[in-house]
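Annotated sample (chain length 214).
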Amino acid sequence: MGRSYIPRPDTDFLAWMNNFLTALNANLSAFGLVAADLTPLTNARNDFQTKLGAFQSAQIALRTASEAKKDSRDTAESLFRQMAQRINRHPNMTDALRAQLGLTVPRPRQRRGVGPEIPGVRLEVDAGRVIVHFGTNPDDERRNGKPEWAIGANIYIREESESAYRLLAFDTASPYMWEYRGAPKRFYFRVAYRGVREQDEGTPSPEEVVSVGG
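Output written by the structure step:
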């Protein structure tokens, strides 16, 4: 006899066993059986039902713990990034302190001029902030970077009512965070790599737009 009649999903299998036992118990005499013949089946069903319940509870607990861990990491990472960004621009910051703090230590830049690279850009909106990820891999900050010739990037912005971009900031490392507490508006961003000199600016990225505020 084939086994295809037994359902694969666990909950369906449990329902199938319950139905099997009910129907068989109602027809014991037809098969020359007594109630004791069903005891091993009933015990097996009960054991599976208990283990399935424990498994389902563990799955729910795992999902809950995983979501709680992710929320906690997101909060911690955001706070640490904000503080790192704040102290990284402080005049007392040194490369030795950056290394001690586990921050990115800029490599010495000797080359002048402008390369052909255009930064990738990804925007995030989070509680009145726009987080500008820029670089060679803005979707993954762990693998993100910038060209050898660039010491950072110029970040430009314009409101939906403006036709021209204005310089918002220069940053040496992604991401850049900009806070906005005004009325809801659409803002357009562009980013261009910048070299050692201010005039060493590469081709700006295509514009990216977000709605923020309110």
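Annotation: The helical segments are 10-25, 39-88, 95-101.
Annotation: The chain has a mean pLDDT of 92.
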